[in-house]
Amino acid sequence: MPPTLAAVAALPQLGLRSRTGPLPDAPVVWVAVSELEDPTPFLEGGELVLTTGMRLTPANAAGYVSRLVGRGVAGLGFAVGVIHETVPAELIAEARGQGLALLEVPRPTPFIAVGKAVSRMLAAEWYEDVTRAYQGQRELTRAALTGPGAVVTRLARLLGGWALLLDASGAVEHAEPAGARDRAGALAPELARLRRRPAKGGRAGAPAEGGQAASLALSDHGDHIAVQRIGLGGRPRGFLAVGTGTPLQPAAHTIVGAAVALLTLQSEGPRTGRDLRASVAALLLGRPGDGPAVPRGPVRVLACAGGTAVLDALESDPAGARCPAVPLDGHIAVVVPDELSGTVEALLAGTGPIGVSSPASEDPAAALREAEEALAAARQTGKDVLHYADLPGQGVIGLLDPALARTFADTLLAPLRKEDLVETVRAYVEANGQGEAAARALGVHRHTLRARMRKAADVLGRDPDDPGVRAELWIALAVMSSRGDRIGHRGDSHSGPAEIA
Protein backbone atom coordinates (compact mmCIF):
# COMPACT_ATOMS: atom_id res chain seq x y z
CA MET A 1 0.00 0.00 0.00
CA PRO A 2 1.23 3.56 -0.65
CA PRO A 3 2.24 5.63 2.40
CA THR A 4 -0.56 7.45 4.21
CA LEU A 5 -0.79 11.21 4.49
CA ALA A 6 -0.32 10.87 8.25
CA ALA A 7 2.92 8.90 7.69
CA VAL A 8 4.25 11.57 5.31
CA ALA A 9 3.38 14.38 7.71
CA ALA A 10 5.12 12.53 10.54
CA LEU A 11 8.53 12.67 8.81
CA PRO A 12 10.52 14.99 11.13
CA GLN A 13 12.87 16.25 8.41
CA LEU A 14 9.96 17.84 6.53
CA GLY A 15 8.49 19.81 9.43
CA LEU A 16 4.92 19.58 8.08
CA ARG A 17 2.07 20.71 10.35
CA SER A 18 -1.60 19.86 10.03
CA ARG A 19 -3.94 22.87 10.02
CA THR A 20 -7.14 20.79 9.90
CA GLY A 21 -6.75 18.47 12.90
CA PRO A 22 -5.95 14.73 12.90
CA LEU A 23 -4.88 13.50 9.47
CA PRO A 24 -6.71 10.67 7.71
CA ASP A 25 -5.09 7.42 6.57
CA ALA A 26 -5.55 8.47 2.96
CA PRO A 27 -2.87 6.88 0.73
CA VAL A 28 -0.49 9.27 -1.06
CA VAL A 29 0.20 7.90 -4.54
CA TRP A 30 2.32 10.85 -5.71
CA VAL A 31 3.27 14.48 -5.08
CA ALA A 32 2.08 17.17 -7.52
CA VAL A 33 3.24 20.78 -7.49
CA SER A 34 0.85 23.27 -9.08
CA GLU A 35 0.12 26.99 -8.91
CA LEU A 36 -2.95 26.71 -11.15
CA GLU A 37 -6.27 27.91 -9.87
CA ASP A 38 -7.68 24.62 -11.15
CA PRO A 39 -5.04 21.85 -11.26
CA THR A 40 -7.57 19.02 -11.31
CA PRO A 41 -7.38 18.34 -15.10
CA PHE A 42 -3.78 17.25 -14.47
CA LEU A 43 -4.49 15.05 -11.45
CA GLU A 44 -5.72 11.47 -11.13
CA GLY A 45 -6.63 11.41 -7.45
CA GLY A 46 -4.60 10.37 -4.43
CA GLU A 47 -1.93 13.06 -4.88
CA LEU A 48 -0.53 15.37 -2.23
CA VAL A 49 -0.85 18.74 -3.98
CA LEU A 50 1.75 21.39 -3.08
CA THR A 51 1.27 25.09 -3.73
CA THR A 52 2.54 28.52 -2.65
CA GLY A 53 -0.94 29.99 -3.16
CA MET A 54 0.20 32.27 -5.99
CA ARG A 55 -3.33 32.55 -7.40
CA LEU A 56 -5.24 32.02 -4.16
CA THR A 57 -7.57 34.80 -2.95
CA PRO A 58 -10.23 34.91 -0.26
CA ALA A 59 -12.82 34.89 -3.04
CA ASN A 60 -11.70 31.75 -4.83
CA ALA A 61 -10.63 29.63 -1.81
CA ALA A 62 -13.98 27.80 -1.61
CA GLY A 63 -13.98 26.79 -5.28
CA TYR A 64 -10.32 25.78 -5.15
CA VAL A 65 -10.90 23.44 -2.20
CA SER A 66 -14.09 22.08 -3.72
CA ARG A 67 -12.32 21.10 -6.93
CA LEU A 68 -9.54 19.31 -5.06
CA VAL A 69 -12.03 17.41 -2.91
CA GLY A 70 -14.00 16.44 -6.00
CA ARG A 71 -10.85 15.04 -7.66
CA GLY A 72 -10.09 12.96 -4.55
CA VAL A 73 -6.64 14.28 -3.70
CA ALA A 74 -4.98 12.95 -0.54
CA GLY A 75 -4.30 16.42 0.83
CA LEU A 76 -3.02 19.94 0.20
CA GLY A 77 0.38 21.25 1.28
CA PHE A 78 0.61 25.04 1.52
CA ALA A 79 4.05 26.70 1.64
CA VAL A 80 4.33 29.72 3.93
CA GLY A 81 6.89 32.50 3.66
CA VAL A 82 6.86 32.63 -0.14
CA ILE A 83 3.69 34.36 -1.36
CA HIS A 84 1.78 34.25 1.94
CA GLU A 85 3.45 34.65 5.33
CA THR A 86 0.83 32.38 6.91
CA VAL A 87 -1.81 30.00 5.65
CA PRO A 88 -4.85 32.18 4.72
CA ALA A 89 -7.66 31.85 7.23
CA GLU A 90 -10.20 31.48 4.41
CA LEU A 91 -8.34 28.45 3.07
CA ILE A 92 -8.16 26.82 6.51
CA ALA A 93 -11.88 27.37 7.07
CA GLU A 94 -12.85 25.93 3.67
CA ALA A 95 -10.53 22.93 4.09
CA ARG A 96 -12.04 22.12 7.48
CA GLY A 97 -15.56 22.61 6.21
CA GLN A 98 -15.17 20.49 3.10
CA GLY A 99 -13.00 17.75 4.63
CA LEU A 100 -9.70 18.47 2.89
CA ALA A 101 -6.54 17.69 4.87
CA LEU A 102 -4.35 20.82 4.88
CA LEU A 103 -0.63 20.76 5.74
CA GLU A 104 1.53 23.81 6.37
CA VAL A 105 4.92 23.52 4.64
CA PRO A 106 7.56 25.64 6.39
CA ARG A 107 9.74 28.00 4.36
CA PRO A 108 12.97 25.97 4.82
CA THR A 109 11.36 22.84 3.34
CA PRO A 110 11.57 22.82 -0.47
CA PHE A 111 8.84 21.08 -2.38
CA ILE A 112 11.41 18.74 -3.94
CA ALA A 113 12.21 17.41 -0.46
CA VAL A 114 8.59 16.41 0.02
CA GLY A 115 8.53 14.74 -3.39
CA LYS A 116 11.73 12.81 -2.71
CA ALA A 117 10.50 11.66 0.68
CA VAL A 118 7.25 10.28 -0.77
CA SER A 119 9.15 8.68 -3.64
CA ARG A 120 11.44 6.88 -1.19
CA MET A 121 8.46 5.66 0.81
CA LEU A 122 6.79 4.36 -2.35
CA ALA A 123 10.01 2.59 -3.40
CA ALA A 124 10.36 0.98 0.03
CA GLU A 125 6.78 -0.25 -0.16
CA TRP A 126 7.35 -1.66 -3.66
CA TYR A 127 10.53 -3.41 -2.50
CA GLU A 128 8.68 -4.91 0.45
CA ASP A 129 6.01 -6.26 -1.90
CA VAL A 130 8.60 -7.76 -4.23
CA THR A 131 10.45 -9.34 -1.31
CA ARG A 132 7.24 -10.76 0.10
CA ALA A 133 6.25 -12.20 -3.27
CA TYR A 134 9.69 -13.73 -3.79
CA GLN A 135 9.73 -15.26 -0.33
CA GLY A 136 6.21 -16.60 -0.84
CA GLN A 137 7.20 -18.21 -4.14
CA ARG A 138 10.16 -19.90 -2.46
CA GLU A 139 7.97 -21.28 0.33
CA LEU A 140 5.43 -22.58 -2.16
CA THR A 141 8.17 -24.24 -4.23
CA ARG A 142 9.46 -26.05 -1.15
CA ALA A 143 5.93 -27.09 -0.25
CA ALA A 144 5.40 -28.44 -3.80
CA LEU A 145 8.05 -31.09 -3.12
CA THR A 146 5.61 -32.61 -0.61
CA GLY A 147 2.48 -32.44 -2.78
CA PRO A 148 -0.55 -30.35 -3.74
CA GLY A 149 -1.96 -30.40 -0.21
CA ALA A 150 1.15 -28.75 1.18
CA VAL A 151 0.93 -26.03 -1.48
CA VAL A 152 -2.68 -25.26 -0.54
CA THR A 153 -1.84 -25.15 3.18
CA ARG A 154 1.14 -22.86 2.67
CA LEU A 155 -0.82 -20.58 0.30
CA ALA A 156 -3.65 -20.06 2.81
CA ARG A 157 -1.17 -19.11 5.52
CA LEU A 158 0.73 -16.72 3.26
CA LEU A 159 -2.50 -14.93 2.34
CA GLY A 160 -3.95 -14.95 5.83
CA GLY A 161 -7.16 -16.50 4.46
CA TRP A 162 -8.43 -19.83 3.18
CA ALA A 163 -7.69 -21.95 0.11
CA LEU A 164 -9.42 -24.81 -1.70
CA LEU A 165 -8.09 -27.19 -4.36
CA LEU A 166 -10.98 -28.65 -6.35
CA ASP A 167 -10.88 -31.40 -8.95
CA ALA A 168 -12.35 -30.99 -12.43
CA SER A 169 -15.84 -31.87 -11.15
CA GLY A 170 -15.67 -29.33 -8.32
CA ALA A 171 -15.10 -31.86 -5.53
CA VAL A 172 -12.75 -30.77 -2.75
CA GLU A 173 -9.30 -32.37 -2.84
CA HIS A 174 -7.58 -30.18 -0.22
CA ALA A 175 -8.88 -27.46 2.10
CA GLU A 176 -7.04 -25.09 4.45
CA PRO A 177 -8.36 -24.63 7.04
CA ALA A 178 -10.60 -27.68 7.12
CA GLY A 179 -13.71 -25.52 7.55
CA ALA A 180 -13.14 -23.94 4.15
CA ARG A 181 -14.47 -27.17 2.62
CA ASP A 182 -17.99 -25.86 3.24
CA ARG A 183 -17.44 -23.03 0.75
CA ALA A 184 -17.18 -25.38 -2.22
CA GLY A 185 -20.96 -25.54 -2.66
CA ALA A 186 -21.23 -21.79 -3.19
CA LEU A 187 -18.52 -21.92 -5.85
CA ALA A 188 -20.07 -24.73 -7.90
CA PRO A 189 -22.33 -22.48 -10.07
CA GLU A 190 -19.33 -20.31 -10.98
CA LEU A 191 -17.09 -23.14 -12.19
CA ALA A 192 -18.99 -23.73 -15.44
CA ARG A 193 -17.42 -20.61 -16.98
CA LEU A 194 -13.95 -21.81 -16.08
CA ARG A 195 -14.53 -25.28 -17.52
CA ARG A 196 -14.59 -23.81 -21.01
CA ARG A 197 -11.33 -23.21 -22.81
CA PRO A 198 -10.04 -19.61 -22.44
CA ALA A 199 -9.88 -17.52 -25.59
CA LYS A 200 -6.66 -18.04 -27.56
CA GLY A 201 -4.14 -15.38 -26.61
CA GLY A 202 -6.32 -14.07 -23.78
CA ARG A 203 -4.74 -13.12 -20.50
CA ALA A 204 -5.54 -14.96 -17.30
CA GLY A 205 -8.63 -13.61 -15.69
CA ALA A 206 -9.82 -11.75 -18.79
CA PRO A 207 -13.27 -12.58 -20.15
CA ALA A 208 -13.20 -14.42 -23.46
CA GLU A 209 -15.81 -14.98 -26.11
CA GLY A 210 -19.13 -16.16 -24.79
CA GLY A 211 -18.23 -15.12 -21.23
CA GLN A 212 -15.43 -17.72 -20.92
CA ALA A 213 -12.61 -16.90 -18.50
CA ALA A 214 -9.41 -18.37 -17.10
CA SER A 215 -10.17 -16.92 -13.65
CA LEU A 216 -12.94 -15.11 -11.84
CA ALA A 217 -13.41 -12.93 -8.77
CA LEU A 218 -16.47 -12.65 -6.52
CA SER A 219 -17.56 -11.71 -3.00
CA ASP A 220 -19.32 -13.95 -0.52
CA HIS A 221 -20.14 -13.22 3.14
CA GLY A 222 -17.53 -10.46 3.30
CA ASP A 223 -14.77 -12.51 1.70
CA HIS A 224 -13.00 -11.52 -1.49
CA ILE A 225 -12.68 -14.74 -3.51
CA ALA A 226 -10.55 -15.55 -6.55
CA VAL A 227 -10.88 -18.80 -8.50
CA GLN A 228 -8.43 -19.99 -11.18
CA ARG A 229 -8.16 -22.96 -13.52
CA ILE A 230 -5.52 -25.62 -13.01
CA GLY A 231 -4.08 -27.29 -16.12
CA LEU A 232 -2.93 -26.43 -19.62
CA GLY A 233 -5.38 -28.28 -21.86
CA GLY A 234 -8.79 -27.37 -23.18
CA ARG A 235 -10.43 -28.95 -20.13
CA PRO A 236 -9.21 -27.89 -16.67
CA ARG A 237 -7.68 -30.52 -14.41
CA GLY A 238 -8.96 -28.66 -11.38
CA PHE A 239 -9.53 -25.28 -9.74
CA LEU A 240 -7.83 -23.25 -7.03
CA ALA A 241 -9.99 -20.94 -4.91
CA VAL A 242 -8.68 -18.50 -2.30
CA GLY A 243 -10.54 -16.14 0.01
CA THR A 244 -9.35 -13.17 2.05
CA GLY A 245 -10.96 -10.47 4.16
CA THR A 246 -9.59 -7.70 1.93
CA PRO A 247 -8.95 -7.51 -1.83
CA LEU A 248 -5.71 -9.16 -2.93
CA GLN A 249 -2.78 -6.79 -3.32
CA PRO A 250 -0.27 -7.15 -6.21
CA ALA A 251 2.17 -9.22 -4.13
CA ALA A 252 -0.65 -11.58 -3.14
CA HIS A 253 -1.71 -11.95 -6.79
CA THR A 254 1.88 -12.92 -7.63
CA ILE A 255 1.89 -15.54 -4.87
CA VAL A 256 -1.43 -17.00 -6.07
CA GLY A 257 -0.07 -17.12 -9.63
CA ALA A 258 2.96 -19.07 -8.42
CA ALA A 259 0.70 -21.56 -6.64
CA VAL A 260 -1.38 -22.03 -9.81
CA ALA A 261 1.78 -22.65 -11.85
CA LEU A 262 3.10 -25.24 -9.37
CA LEU A 263 -0.24 -27.03 -9.15
CA THR A 264 -0.49 -27.03 -12.95
CA LEU A 265 2.96 -28.61 -13.28
CA GLN A 266 1.98 -31.29 -10.79
CA SER A 267 -1.29 -31.95 -12.59
CA GLU A 268 0.43 -32.32 -15.95
CA GLY A 269 2.93 -34.89 -14.67
CA PRO A 270 0.88 -37.98 -15.65
CA ARG A 271 0.50 -36.62 -19.18
CA THR A 272 4.30 -36.43 -19.53
CA GLY A 273 4.62 -40.05 -18.43
CA ARG A 274 1.91 -41.06 -20.91
CA ASP A 275 3.76 -39.39 -23.78
CA LEU A 276 6.99 -41.13 -22.78
CA ARG A 277 5.31 -44.54 -22.73
CA ALA A 278 3.78 -43.82 -26.14
CA SER A 279 7.20 -42.93 -27.55
CA VAL A 280 8.78 -46.14 -26.24
CA ALA A 281 5.92 -48.20 -27.67
CA ALA A 282 6.33 -46.50 -31.06
CA LEU A 283 10.05 -47.33 -31.10
CA LEU A 284 9.40 -50.96 -30.19
CA LEU A 285 6.87 -51.20 -33.01
CA GLY A 286 9.31 -49.71 -35.50
CA ARG A 287 7.23 -46.57 -35.95
CA PRO A 288 9.18 -43.85 -34.13
CA GLY A 289 7.46 -41.10 -36.10
CA ASP A 290 4.20 -41.95 -34.34
CA GLY A 291 5.64 -41.28 -30.89
CA PRO A 292 4.43 -37.94 -29.47
CA ALA A 293 7.79 -37.16 -27.81
CA VAL A 294 9.93 -38.06 -30.85
CA PRO A 295 11.18 -34.91 -32.62
CA ARG A 296 9.88 -34.47 -36.16
CA GLY A 297 11.49 -32.63 -39.03
CA PRO A 298 15.10 -31.40 -39.05
CA VAL A 299 16.94 -31.98 -35.80
CA ARG A 300 20.28 -31.01 -34.34
CA VAL A 301 22.40 -33.12 -32.04
CA LEU A 302 24.01 -31.48 -29.04
CA ALA A 303 27.05 -33.18 -27.53
CA CYS A 304 27.18 -31.94 -23.93
CA ALA A 305 29.98 -32.39 -21.41
CA GLY A 306 27.93 -31.37 -18.38
CA GLY A 307 26.94 -34.83 -17.14
CA THR A 308 23.81 -35.17 -15.01
CA ALA A 309 23.42 -31.37 -14.88
CA VAL A 310 22.39 -31.57 -18.54
CA LEU A 311 19.62 -34.07 -17.75
CA ASP A 312 18.42 -31.99 -14.79
CA ALA A 313 18.27 -28.84 -16.94
CA LEU A 314 16.29 -30.64 -19.67
CA GLU A 315 13.74 -31.89 -17.15
CA SER A 316 13.27 -28.38 -15.75
CA ASP A 317 11.77 -26.89 -18.93
CA PRO A 318 8.97 -27.92 -21.33
CA ALA A 319 11.28 -27.38 -24.32
CA GLY A 320 13.88 -29.69 -22.80
CA ALA A 321 11.25 -32.34 -22.13
CA ARG A 322 10.78 -32.66 -25.91
CA CYS A 323 14.45 -33.57 -26.44
CA PRO A 324 15.54 -37.22 -26.01
CA ALA A 325 18.98 -37.55 -24.40
CA VAL A 326 21.36 -40.50 -24.07
CA PRO A 327 24.61 -40.72 -22.04
CA LEU A 328 27.58 -41.70 -24.23
CA ASP A 329 31.30 -42.05 -23.58
CA GLY A 330 32.34 -38.83 -21.89
CA HIS A 331 29.31 -36.75 -22.88
CA ILE A 332 25.54 -36.71 -23.29
CA ALA A 333 23.93 -36.56 -26.74
CA VAL A 334 20.68 -34.60 -26.96
CA VAL A 335 18.41 -34.72 -30.02
CA VAL A 336 16.76 -31.31 -30.43
CA PRO A 337 14.14 -30.15 -32.96
CA ASP A 338 15.84 -27.53 -35.10
CA GLU A 339 13.35 -24.80 -34.14
CA LEU A 340 14.15 -25.34 -30.43
CA SER A 341 17.93 -25.36 -30.83
CA GLY A 342 18.50 -21.82 -29.56
CA THR A 343 16.13 -22.32 -26.62
CA VAL A 344 17.76 -25.57 -25.53
CA GLU A 345 21.28 -24.17 -25.95
CA ALA A 346 20.34 -21.32 -23.61
CA LEU A 347 18.72 -23.81 -21.21
CA LEU A 348 21.92 -25.87 -21.03
CA ALA A 349 24.25 -22.87 -20.80
CA GLY A 350 26.52 -23.18 -17.82
CA THR A 351 26.35 -26.98 -17.57
CA GLY A 352 29.63 -27.36 -19.51
CA PRO A 353 31.00 -27.18 -23.07
CA ILE A 354 28.48 -27.98 -25.82
CA GLY A 355 29.04 -28.98 -29.45
CA VAL A 356 26.12 -28.39 -31.85
CA SER A 357 25.66 -30.17 -35.17
CA SER A 358 24.20 -28.77 -38.38
CA PRO A 359 20.49 -29.50 -39.02
CA ALA A 360 19.93 -33.13 -40.12
CA SER A 361 16.82 -34.73 -41.59
CA GLU A 362 18.00 -38.17 -42.68
CA ASP A 363 21.27 -39.05 -40.93
CA PRO A 364 21.26 -38.33 -37.18
CA ALA A 365 24.41 -40.46 -36.84
CA ALA A 366 26.33 -37.98 -39.01
CA ALA A 367 24.91 -35.15 -36.91
CA LEU A 368 26.23 -36.90 -33.80
CA ARG A 369 29.72 -37.04 -35.30
CA GLU A 370 29.54 -33.32 -36.11
CA ALA A 371 28.40 -32.51 -32.57
CA GLU A 372 31.23 -34.56 -31.07
CA GLU A 373 33.83 -32.82 -33.25
CA ALA A 374 32.41 -29.44 -32.28
CA LEU A 375 32.49 -30.47 -28.59
CA ALA A 376 36.15 -31.50 -28.88
CA ALA A 377 36.99 -28.09 -30.39
CA ALA A 378 34.93 -26.31 -27.70
CA ARG A 379 36.87 -28.08 -24.96
CA GLN A 380 40.20 -27.17 -26.56
CA THR A 381 39.36 -23.52 -27.17
CA GLY A 382 37.39 -22.90 -23.98
CA LYS A 383 34.12 -22.12 -25.76
CA ASP A 384 30.82 -22.63 -23.92
CA VAL A 385 28.93 -23.46 -27.12
CA LEU A 386 30.46 -24.20 -30.52
CA HIS A 387 28.53 -24.98 -33.71
CA TYR A 388 30.01 -27.39 -36.23
CA ALA A 389 29.42 -24.78 -38.95
CA ASP A 390 31.70 -22.37 -37.05
CA LEU A 391 34.69 -24.70 -36.81
CA PRO A 392 36.55 -23.15 -39.77
CA GLY A 393 36.36 -19.78 -38.06
CA GLN A 394 38.25 -20.98 -35.00
CA GLY A 395 41.55 -20.25 -36.80
CA VAL A 396 44.71 -22.20 -37.44
CA ILE A 397 46.15 -21.66 -33.96
CA GLY A 398 43.27 -23.62 -32.49
CA LEU A 399 44.68 -26.66 -34.29
CA LEU A 400 48.18 -26.35 -32.83
CA ASP A 401 49.54 -28.55 -30.09
CA PRO A 402 49.64 -26.21 -27.05
CA ALA A 403 53.02 -27.37 -25.73
CA LEU A 404 54.82 -27.16 -29.08
CA ALA A 405 53.14 -23.86 -29.90
CA ARG A 406 54.25 -22.26 -26.64
CA THR A 407 57.84 -23.47 -27.15
CA PHE A 408 57.84 -21.91 -30.62
CA ALA A 409 56.37 -18.64 -29.36
CA ASP A 410 58.69 -18.38 -26.39
CA THR A 411 61.77 -18.96 -28.56
CA LEU A 412 60.70 -16.42 -31.22
CA LEU A 413 59.76 -13.70 -28.74
CA ALA A 414 62.67 -14.15 -26.31
CA PRO A 415 64.98 -11.59 -28.04
CA LEU A 416 62.14 -9.04 -28.13
CA ARG A 417 61.31 -9.65 -24.50
CA LYS A 418 64.93 -9.08 -23.52
CA GLU A 419 64.92 -5.67 -25.23
CA ASP A 420 61.40 -4.77 -23.95
CA LEU A 421 60.07 -4.65 -27.50
CA VAL A 422 57.21 -7.16 -27.31
CA GLU A 423 54.42 -4.58 -27.02
CA THR A 424 55.93 -2.45 -29.79
CA VAL A 425 55.95 -5.46 -32.15
CA ARG A 426 52.46 -6.44 -31.00
CA ALA A 427 51.07 -3.00 -31.89
CA TYR A 428 52.88 -3.09 -35.26
CA VAL A 429 51.52 -6.56 -36.11
CA GLU A 430 47.99 -5.67 -35.03
CA ALA A 431 48.17 -2.57 -37.25
CA ASN A 432 49.12 -4.81 -40.20
CA GLY A 433 52.45 -3.03 -40.54
CA GLN A 434 50.94 0.46 -40.62
CA GLY A 435 53.42 2.54 -38.64
CA GLU A 436 51.17 5.54 -38.12
CA ALA A 437 48.36 3.41 -36.60
CA ALA A 438 50.79 1.46 -34.43
CA ALA A 439 52.38 4.66 -33.12
CA ARG A 440 48.94 6.03 -32.18
CA ALA A 441 48.09 2.79 -30.38
CA LEU A 442 51.30 3.02 -28.36
CA GLY A 443 51.04 6.77 -27.79
CA VAL A 444 54.47 7.46 -29.26
CA HIS A 445 55.79 9.45 -32.20
CA ARG A 446 56.10 7.63 -35.51
CA HIS A 447 59.85 8.27 -35.56
CA THR A 448 60.14 6.58 -32.16
CA LEU A 449 58.18 3.61 -33.49
CA ARG A 450 60.36 3.42 -36.57
CA ALA A 451 63.52 3.36 -34.44
CA ARG A 452 62.10 0.62 -32.21
CA MET A 453 61.07 -1.51 -35.18
CA ARG A 454 64.58 -1.20 -36.69
CA LYS A 455 65.97 -2.48 -33.40
CA ALA A 456 63.36 -5.30 -33.38
CA ALA A 457 64.46 -6.35 -36.87
CA ASP A 458 68.08 -6.39 -35.70
CA VAL A 459 67.48 -8.57 -32.65
CA LEU A 460 65.21 -10.93 -34.61
CA GLY A 461 67.55 -11.06 -37.58
CA ARG A 462 64.40 -10.93 -39.72
CA ASP A 463 62.29 -8.26 -41.39
CA PRO A 464 58.89 -7.69 -39.69
CA ASP A 465 57.61 -6.21 -42.97
CA ASP A 466 57.90 -9.62 -44.59
CA PRO A 467 54.37 -11.16 -44.58
CA GLY A 468 55.68 -14.56 -43.50
CA VAL A 469 57.63 -13.09 -40.59
CA ARG A 470 54.68 -10.99 -39.50
CA ALA A 471 52.39 -14.04 -39.65
CA GLU A 472 54.77 -16.00 -37.40
CA LEU A 473 54.93 -13.07 -34.98
CA TRP A 474 51.13 -12.85 -34.92
CA ILE A 475 50.86 -16.58 -34.11
CA ALA A 476 53.50 -16.33 -31.39
CA LEU A 477 51.81 -13.33 -29.77
CA ALA A 478 48.40 -15.01 -29.93
CA VAL A 479 49.75 -18.22 -28.38
CA MET A 480 51.43 -16.34 -25.53
CA SER A 481 48.24 -14.34 -24.90
CA SER A 482 46.16 -17.51 -24.40
CA ARG A 483 45.45 -18.51 -20.84
CA GLY A 484 45.75 -21.92 -19.25
CA ASP A 485 46.37 -25.00 -21.35
CA ARG A 486 44.14 -23.93 -24.25
CA ILE A 487 44.88 -21.88 -27.33
CA GLY A 488 41.84 -20.15 -28.67
CA HIS A 489 42.05 -16.90 -30.64
CA ARG A 490 40.17 -16.05 -33.79
CA GLY A 491 42.55 -13.29 -34.78
CA ASP A 492 43.20 -10.82 -32.02
CA SER A 493 46.32 -11.47 -30.05
CA HIS A 494 45.99 -8.38 -27.88
CA SER A 495 45.94 -9.42 -24.21
CA GLY A 496 45.69 -5.94 -22.68
CA PRO A 497 46.59 -2.31 -23.10
CA ALA A 498 50.02 -1.52 -24.46
CA GLU A 499 52.61 -1.07 -21.73
CA ILE A 500 55.12 1.12 -23.66
CA ALA A 501 54.47 4.85 -23.38
Automatic annotation (TrEMBL):
<protein>
    <submittedName>
        <fullName>Purine catabolism regulatory protein</fullName>
    </submittedName>
</protein>
<feature type="domain" description="Purine catabolism PurC-like">
    <location>
        <begin position="25"/>
        <end position="121"/>
    </location>
</feature>
<feature type="domain" description="PucR C-terminal helix-turn-helix">
    <location>
        <begin position="421"/>
        <end position="478"/>
    </location>
</feature>
<dbReference type="InterPro" id="IPR012914">
    <property type="entry name" value="PucR_dom"/>
</dbReference>
<dbReference type="Pfam" id="PF07905">
    <property type="entry name" value="PucR"/>
</dbReference>
<dbReference type="InterPro" id="IPR025736">
    <property type="entry name" value="PucR_C-HTH_dom"/>
</dbReference>
<dbReference type="Pfam" id="PF13556">
    <property type="entry name" value="HTH_30"/>
</dbReference>
<dbReference type="InterPro" id="IPR042070">
    <property type="entry name" value="PucR_C-HTH_sf"/>
</dbReference>
<dbReference type="InterPro" id="IPR051448">
    <property type="entry name" value="CdaR-like_regulators"/>
</dbReference>
